[in-house]
Specification:
The chain has 502 residues and is α+β, with helices and mostly antiparallel strands. The chain folds into four domains: 123 residues, PAS domain (Beta-Lactamase), CATH 3.30.450; 124 residues, Beta-Lactamase (2-Layer Sandwich); 70 residues, Helix Hairpins; 150 residues, Histidine kinase-like ATPase, C-terminal domain (Heat Shock Protein 90), CATH 3.30.565.
C-alpha cells in the first residue's frame, strides 16, 4: 500500500494541482501547487471555509454546489467537471478547469467528499474571451456596413454570416441564408464555370464549385475580381469581390470572408464612357470623311466651271459659246444640288431630338406609299405592309417620313425590270424595341464587294442616271442621330432587305 504522503507527492508531481473537498464540513484542501497557481504560499490558505471560499467567484461556487446537489448515488454519476474563476493574490482572475470524483456518500446517497485536480487554462481562456470580443466587434462592424455585402462561410462553403449590407443589396434575410445556402445561390453559373476553367489552367488541377471563390485565399494569395450577384428578385448587381481566409489562433483556416462592393453605377459609368468615346471616334471619322468628300466634290464642280469659262474666252463663234454656257449652267445646277445635299446632312447632324413626338408607324408608312403612289402604279408594284395599326414610336416626324420614303423610293429605283416589283414591310419587337424591315426583289447589290461603302456619301453602284449616292447616306445619318441603326442584307439579282432598329 502507498501511504498518504507518497500519494500526495505523486499527485503533486503529476498534476498542476489537486484538491480535496469535504462537503459536510465545507473544508477544502488545496495542494501547494494549487495555491501557487493563485500566487499564495502554503501557509497562507487554510482548509477553513472562510479561507478558501473567498478565493472562488461566488457564481461559480454556487454552480458547483448546485451541480453536486443534483447528484445522487442512484443516478450513477460519480464525477464532475467545470471551469471556475479564482482570484489571484494580486487581484487578477485565474481560470481553472476543475475535474473531480465523488468518493464518499451519505446514507441518502448524496455526495459528501470530492477529490480532484485543477489545470490552469487562464491563457487559453483569455484568448477565447479576446477572440469573442473581436468577433463581436467584427460582427458589429460588418452589420454597420450597409453598403457593402459581407458574407462569411465555413470551409465547405455554407454561409455562416450575412451582414446588413448583404441583406440590403441582395434582398435576402440573414436567416434565409445562414446555415442554409452557399454563395452559389447569388452567383451566375456561367461566370463561376468560366473562372473555374481559368483557375484550373492556372494551377493545373480541377477547380470547380465553391473552390472557385476561395482557391487563391487558401493559398494565401490575393484576388479582387468583378462578379455579377443575382438578387432575390432575379435582377443583377455588379460587385467587386475580395475573398480572404479566416484563421484561428493556431493560424489554421476555419472559414472564408467575401467582401463585395457594389460597382453597378461605376460599371454603367464606364460603359457610358466607352460608348461616348466610340461615338466621338465615329463622329470624328465621319467629319473627316465628310470634309474630304465635300472638298473633293466642290473642287470638281468649280474646276469644271473654271475650265469651261477659260474655254469660253477662246471661242469666237456664238454657237460654241452658247454650248459652253449651257454646260456651265449644268455644272452650276450640279454644284447647287451638291451644296444642298451637304447642307441637308449638316442640318441632320446638328438637329436636336427635342422635336420628337409619339408617332403611329403604320400611318407614316401609308403616307409614304401614297406619296409614291404614281411611281408604284407606273411600275405595277405590289407592296405588302405587315405593321400593326397601334404601334407607336417616339421619333422625329420629319426624319421618319424621310427614312421610309427614301427606302421605298430606293426599291422602285433599283427594281429588276425583268419581273414585277414586290415590296414587303414587316415589323417585329426585339428587346421591347421595334425593328422595321423593308424588303424588295430588285437587282440587289454585292455586299462582299461594296458592303462598307453602301451607306457612303456620293457612292453609287449601278449605272442609274438618277443615282447621286446621297439618299442612303442621309437615311443612315438620320437614323443614327436618333440613336438607332440600319443594316443591309442583299444578293445580286435576288433582292435587298434594309433593317432599322429604332
Amino acid at each position: 500500500m502507498i501511504n498518504n504522503d507518497i500519494y500526495k507527492i505523486i499527485l503533486e508531481d503529476t498534476l498542476s494541482g489537486y484538491w480535496d473537498w469535504n462537503i459536510l464540513t465545507n473544508e477544502y484542501f488545496m495542494s501547494p501547487t494549487f495555491k501557487s497557481i493563485l500566487g499564495y504560499e502554503e501557509h497562507e490558505i487554510t482548509i477553513a471555509p472562510e479561507s478558501w471560499t473567498t478565493l472562488i467567484n461566488k457564481i461559480d461556487l454556487d454552480y458547483k454546489i448546485n451541480s453536486l446537489s443534483n447528484i445522487n448515488l442512484e443516478c450513477g454519476i460519480n464525477s464532475m467537471s467545470c471551469v471556475s474563476r479564482y482570484y489571484h493574490k494580486d487581484g487578477s482572475i485565474v481560470w481553472l478547469n476543475c475535474s473531480g470524483k465523488i468518493i464518499d456518500w451519505d446514507e441518502n446517497g448524496k455526495p459528501t467528499r470530492v477529490v480532484g485536480s485543477v489545470d490552469n487554462i487562464t491563457t487559453l481562456k483569455e484568448k477565447e474571451i479576446e477572440n469573442e470580443r473581436l468577433s463581436n466587434n467584427l460582427k458589429n462592424l460588418l452589420d454597420a456596413s450597409t453598403n457593402i455585402s459581407i458574407i462569411g462561410t465555413n470551409l465547405e462553403g455554407l454561409i455562416t454570416h450575412f451582414n446588413k449590407g448583404a441583406e440590403r443589396l441582395l434582398g435576402y434575410n440573414a436567416d434565409e441564408m445562414i446555415d442554409i445556402a452557399t454563395p452559389k445561390k447569388i452567383h451566375l453559373e456561367e461566370e463561376v464555370i468560366a473562372h473555374g476553367e481559368y483557375l484550373s489552367k492556372r494551377f493545373n488541377k480541377k477547380i470547380e464549385g465553391f473552390d472557385v471563390f476561395v482557391e487563391l485565399a487558401r493559398q494565401g494569395l490575393y484576388e479582387s475580381k468583378d462578379w455579377t450577384y443575382v438578387r432575390n428578385n432575379g435582377s443583377h448587381l455588379s460587385v467587386q469581390l475580395v475573398v480572404t481566409a479566416r484563421k484561428n489562433i493556431r493560424n489554421e483556416i476555419i472559414g472564408f470572408l467575401g467582401i463585395g462592393t457594389d460597382i453597378t453605377e461605376l460599371k454603367k459609368t464606364q460603359s457610358n464612357l466607352i460608348k461616348t468615346n466610340e461615338h466621338i471616334t465615329y463622329q470624328n471619322k465621319k467629319l473627316l470623311d465628310f470634309t474630304y468628300i465635300a472638298s473633293h466634290n466642290l473642287k470638281t464642280h468649280t474646276k469644271n466651271i473654271n475650265m469651261l469659262l477659260q474655254l469660253f474666252d477662246r471661242k469666237e463663234k456664238d454657237d460654241d459659246k452658247k454650248e459652253i454656257i449651257n454646260l456651265v449652267k449644268d455644272n452650276a445646277v450640279n454644284l447647287y444640288s451638291t451644296i444642298n445635299s451637304l447642307n441637308d446632312i449638316i442640318q441632320i447632324q446638328n438637329n436636336s431630338v427635342n422635336d420628337n413626338q409619339i408617332l403611329n408607324l403604320n400611318e407614316f408608312i401609308i403616307k409614304s406609299i401614297n406619296l409614291l403612289s404614281i411611281d408604284l402604279e407606273k411600275v405595277d408594284a405590289k407592296i405588302e405592309v405587315n405593321v400593326s395599326k397601334d404601334v407607336t414610336i417616339n421619333y422625329n416626324p420629319i426624319y421618319l417620313e424621310s427614312i421610309i420614303f427614301n427606302l421605298i423610293s430606293n426599291a422602285i429605283k433599283y427594281r429588276n425590270r425583268n419581273r414585277k416589283l414586290e415590296i414587303i414591310i414587316d415589323l417585329k419587337i426585339t428587346k421591347n424595341k421595334p425593328v422595321l424591315t423593308i424588303s424588295d426583289n430588285g437587282i440587289g447589290v454585292d455586299i462582299e464587294k461594296y458592303g462598307e461603302k453602301i451607306f457612303g456619301l456620293f457612292k453609287t453602284f449601278h449605272n442609274n442616271k438618277d443615282a447621286k449616292g446621297v439618299g442612303l447616306y442621309i437615311t443612315k445619318t438620320q437614323i443614327e442621330s436618333m440613336g438607332g441603326t440600319i443594316s443591309i442584307d442583299s444578293t445580286p439579282n435576288i433582292g435587298t432587305t434594309f433593317t432599322i432598329n429604332f
